């Protein structure tokens, strides 16, 4: 803290709950809290992990610096004997997209999920020791969302017992795989399997890209970087690559063969494992992305909340201080729902992790029954949480006024790094359409099949379609059962209405395409039911610490009633609510904001973000914003000299009316 002064001390004194206990509730357990706190401090205190200067670096310098950080981190992992969990936290706190994300979150999981026991025995130890570095090369220049449309071919050659990997067209060039352009030695390449001239679907193949001795690309492989991406630092620490294969031979045993096999004779064998397991890595990463959303949103909210308490604007009386902008109701109505969303996403992420672990165990035991539900949940929640987080970060920038636009606010880089999460691992609209397929199927089977899991509420379809909300006062909205029922009724009604309209089409696919915008809205409504219900389930657990549960209840109502207010068109159009009830919900929301207000700073302190992670002058823990902004401006290398390069050459001739004779 700057000179020991805490400019937010009075704000912190207002807290009505035990902040230390809330930190534990946010982390999930005391052990989780202590672990992440230790790793966060390890990173914050290590000068190699400095990141404030990142946006000022050119691409090559930025990339080299990122390689240095990864190497240093790996050395720490070995020297300090960090566990896999600690190593993951280390990567999170270093906060820099790098090839290791692909190694640990895609290459290794792909082999774990789609490889045979023999393949796992061979490749996993090498990958876990970083003796091979792998990436995930699925997307191509011409196709990303449509995986079945990929053009790269893997043709079996029975003479040599090899597959020949080839890029037959320009659009078949692999395009985007992270870590590939400059680093990875291997990639899981998704390609159309061709046996004896016959196409057998898209499969994953382990392809070596570079020579392990001198790192040069192997013969037949053309590889490079796809170019600068959005933002300056941001995702540009990652070497997203383009790869072109010219008849590259790989051994037959490098096709990932858990789902299907190719025999020595070149016969295709489809095992009992469903083909969808080929998409299993994406299910895993989507679940991780949901868990990550609350981390990103909480960072932006922490910055905007602290700055809103520091910033004063208008309303001075008798020469006294002006009003803190956090006290404006408009500021609260934009900021506090985001604060509540960060908590909501944290808890739904925790639940989704549990769901994924359960599905993974079942898959290992060849029980595939819960895979469709896991796919719909991960796809839908990935879409909901990343869209809301990306929009939320941008809202936080606006909440910080002009200073939010400065790189030193920490928000522009956070936004630029985060926003591709709406696209990668499945475009958010395409993902919601997957949920829609699942919902339509569930609704069409309601007459004879009991929905289970997250759609179980639709068992009460008759009641949810017929009964209406009974709320008569704003106070009556403070009932979790009433709130959840409203979300369930709206979702059921939207899904059933879509089902009824779809039934009028002769061709169901045509109907699906025609109604897709409505189906996306119905899917969002269903995903909101999941988030709201999981928040309630969290509140039903024991949550220790003075005032902690009460504050979380307040945040639950803020989250749910804000959504209700935002989507009141749906709630009214489906007939579950009256305009009066929607208006009472909004009245309650204002009361809730005043309950959040004294606790706002303590609630963002509970995220336990270090100043290093926030990398934000506006979000500093001590609130010492203005002197630090001023200092940072004059520390900018652009201010090294009063006379910038080019002034004498281009400005002075103009001032002197001598441009005609100047050398431009
Ligand atoms: C932010 C930091 C977090 C930390 C994590 C680290 C991050 C690492 C860095 C990430 C970098 C980014 C990497 C990438 O982007 S990799 C590329 C990702 N690509 C995609 O996501 C492509 C999206 N497209 C698809 O998933 C599919 O093609 C799509 C589902 C859209 C359509 O596929 P297809 O045409 O084959 O399928 P159908 O619609 O006909 O469905 C057939 C049936 O299969 C079911 N299905 C589909 N997907 C899955 C799945 N993943 N799991 C299980 N089941 C699935 C589908 O429901 C159909 O079922 P039914 O027949 O029963 O209806
Ligand atoms: C930063 C970043 C990192 C990435 N890393 C990797 C990686 O490591 N490995 C890898 O393989 N890939 C990677 N990708 C690629 C990523 O997975 C794809 O970009 C993503 O899946 C979206 O596919 P697309 O680009 O084909 O988009 P498109 O599908 O072309 O989307 C374009 C537009 O069309 C719409 N659209 C598409 N299909 C439909 C439909 N059926 N119905 C309605 N609307 C539709 C979309 O909503 C969108 O608005 C990365 C991408 C980014 C941005």
From TrEMBL:
<dbReference type="GO" id="GO:0003997">
    <property type="term" value="F:acyl-CoA oxidase activity"/>
</dbReference>
<dbReference type="InterPro" id="IPR055060">
    <property type="entry name" value="ACOX_C_alpha1"/>
</dbReference>
<dbReference type="GO" id="GO:0001676">
    <property type="term" value="P:long-chain fatty acid metabolic process"/>
</dbReference>
<dbReference type="Pfam" id="PF01756">
    <property type="entry name" value="ACOX"/>
</dbReference>
<feature type="binding site">
    <location>
        <position position="178"/>
    </location>
    <ligand>
        <name>FAD</name>
    </ligand>
</feature>
<keyword id="KW-0576">Peroxisome</keyword>
<dbReference type="InterPro" id="IPR002655">
    <property type="entry name" value="Acyl-CoA_oxidase_C"/>
</dbReference>
<dbReference type="GO" id="GO:0055088">
    <property type="term" value="P:lipid homeostasis"/>
</dbReference>
<comment type="similarity">
    <text>Belongs to the acyl-CoA oxidase family.</text>
</comment>
<protein>
    <recommendedName>
        <fullName>Acyl-coenzyme A oxidase</fullName>
    </recommendedName>
</protein>
<feature type="domain" description="Acyl-coenzyme A oxidase N-terminal">
    <location>
        <begin position="18"/>
        <end position="133"/>
    </location>
</feature>
<keyword id="KW-0274">FAD</keyword>
<dbReference type="Pfam" id="PF14749">
    <property type="entry name" value="Acyl-CoA_ox_N"/>
</dbReference>
<feature type="domain" description="Acyl-CoA oxidase C-terminal">
    <location>
        <begin position="480"/>
        <end position="655"/>
    </location>
</feature>
<dbReference type="InterPro" id="IPR036250">
    <property type="entry name" value="AcylCo_DH-like_C"/>
</dbReference>
<feature type="binding site">
    <location>
        <position position="139"/>
    </location>
    <ligand>
        <name>FAD</name>
    </ligand>
</feature>
<dbReference type="InterPro" id="IPR009100">
    <property type="entry name" value="AcylCoA_DH/oxidase_NM_dom_sf"/>
</dbReference>
<dbReference type="GO" id="GO:0033540">
    <property type="term" value="P:fatty acid beta-oxidation using acyl-CoA oxidase"/>
</dbReference>
<feature type="active site" description="Proton acceptor">
    <location>
        <position position="425"/>
    </location>
</feature>
<dbReference type="GO" id="GO:0005777">
    <property type="term" value="C:peroxisome"/>
</dbReference>
<dbReference type="InterPro" id="IPR046373">
    <property type="entry name" value="Acyl-CoA_Oxase/DH_mid-dom_sf"/>
</dbReference>
<dbReference type="InterPro" id="IPR037069">
    <property type="entry name" value="AcylCoA_DH/ox_N_sf"/>
</dbReference>
<dbReference type="Pfam" id="PF22924">
    <property type="entry name" value="ACOX_C_alpha1"/>
</dbReference>
<feature type="domain" description="Acyl-CoA oxidase C-alpha1">
    <location>
        <begin position="279"/>
        <end position="440"/>
    </location>
</feature>
<dbReference type="GO" id="GO:0005504">
    <property type="term" value="F:fatty acid binding"/>
</dbReference>
<keyword id="KW-0443">Lipid metabolism</keyword>
<keyword id="KW-0560">Oxidoreductase</keyword>
<keyword id="KW-0276">Fatty acid metabolism</keyword>
<dbReference type="GO" id="GO:0071949">
    <property type="term" value="F:FAD binding"/>
</dbReference>
<dbReference type="InterPro" id="IPR012258">
    <property type="entry name" value="Acyl-CoA_oxidase"/>
</dbReference>
<keyword id="KW-0285">Flavoprotein</keyword>
<dbReference type="InterPro" id="IPR029320">
    <property type="entry name" value="Acyl-CoA_ox_N"/>
</dbReference>
């Amino acid at each position: 803290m700057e000179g020991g002064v805490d400019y937010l001390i009075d704000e912190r004194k207002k807290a009505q709950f035990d902040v230390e206990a809330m930190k534990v509730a946010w982390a999930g357990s005391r052990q989780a809290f202590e672990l992440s706190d230790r790793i966060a401090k390890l990173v914050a205190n290590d000068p190699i992990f400095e990141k404030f200067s990142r946006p000022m670096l050119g691409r090559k310098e930025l990339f080299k610096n990122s390689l240095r950080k990864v190497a240093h981190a790996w050395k720490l992992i070995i020297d300090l004997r960090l566990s896999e969990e600690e190593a993951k936290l280390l990567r999170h706190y270093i906060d820099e997209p790098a090839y290791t994300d692909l190694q640990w979150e895609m290459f290794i999981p792909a082999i774990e999920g789609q490889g045979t026991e023999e393949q796992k025995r061979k490749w996993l130890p090498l990958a876990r020791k970083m003796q091979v570095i792998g990436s995930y090369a699925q997307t191509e220049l011409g196709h990303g969302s449509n995986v079945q449309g990929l053009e790269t071919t893997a043709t079996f050659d029975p003479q040599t017992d090899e597959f020949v990997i080839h890029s037959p067209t320009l659009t078949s060039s692999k395009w985007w795989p992270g870590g590939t352009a400059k680093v990875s030695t291997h990639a899981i390449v998704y390609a159309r399997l061709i046996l004896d001239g016959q196409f057998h679907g898209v499969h994953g193949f382990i392809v070596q890209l570079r020579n392990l001795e001198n790192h040069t690309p192997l013969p037949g492989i053309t590889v490079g970087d796809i170019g600068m991406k959005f933002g300056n630092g941001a995702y540009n620490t990652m070497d997203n690559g383009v790869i072109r294969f010219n008849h590259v031979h790989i051994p037959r045993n490098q096709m990932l063969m858990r789902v299907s096999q190719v025999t020595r004779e070149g016969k295709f064998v489809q095992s009992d494992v469903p083909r969808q397991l080929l998409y299993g890595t994406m299910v895993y990463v989507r679940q991780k992305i949901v868990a990550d959303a609350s981390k990103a949103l909480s960072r932006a909210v922490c910055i905007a909340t602290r700055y809103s308490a520091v910033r004063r604007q208008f309303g001075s009386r008798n020469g006294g201080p002006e009003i803190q902008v956090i006290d404006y109701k408009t500021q609260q109505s934009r900021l506090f729902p985001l604060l509540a969303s960060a908590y909501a996403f944290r808890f739904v992420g925790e639940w989704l992790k549990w769901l994924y672990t359960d599905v993974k165990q079942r898959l290992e035991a060849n029980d595939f029954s819960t895979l469709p539900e896991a796919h719909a949940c991960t796809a839908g929640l990935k879409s909901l949480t990343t869209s809301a987080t990306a929009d939320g970060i941008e809202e936080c920038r606006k909440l910080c006024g002009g200073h939010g636009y400065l790189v030193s606010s920490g928000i522009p880089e956070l936004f630029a790094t985060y926003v591709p999460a709406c696209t990668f691992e499945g475009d958010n609209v395409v993902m919601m359409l997957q949920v829609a397929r699942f919902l339509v199927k569930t609704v069409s089977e309601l007459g004879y099949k009991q929905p289970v899991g997250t759609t179980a509420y639709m068992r009460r379809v008759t009641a949810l379609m017929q009964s209406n909300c009974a709320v008569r006062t704003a106070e009556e909205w403070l009932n979790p059962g009433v709130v959840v029922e409203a979300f369930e009724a709206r979702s059921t009604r939207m899904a059933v209405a879509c089902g009824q309209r779809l039934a009028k089409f002769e061709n169901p696919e045509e109907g699906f395409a025609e109604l897709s915008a409505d189906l996306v809205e119905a899917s969002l409504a269903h995903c909101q039911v999941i988030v709201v219900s999981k928040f309630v389930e969290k509140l039903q657990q024991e949550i220790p610490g003075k005032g902690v549960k009460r504050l979380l209840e307040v945040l639950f109502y803020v989250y749910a009633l804000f959504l209700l207010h935002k989507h009141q068109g749906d709630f009214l159009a489906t007939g579950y609510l009256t305009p009066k009830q929607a208006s009472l919900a909004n009245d309650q929301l204002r009361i809730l904001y005043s309950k959040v207000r004294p606790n706002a700073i303590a609630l963002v302190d509970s995220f336990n973000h270090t100043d290093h992670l926030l990398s934000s002058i506006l979000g500093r823990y001590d609130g010492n914003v203005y002197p630090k902004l001023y200092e940072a401006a004059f520390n900018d290398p652009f201010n090294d000299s009063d006379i910038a390069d080019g002034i004498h050459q281009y400005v002075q001739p103009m001032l002197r009316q001598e441009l005609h004779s100047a050398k431009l």
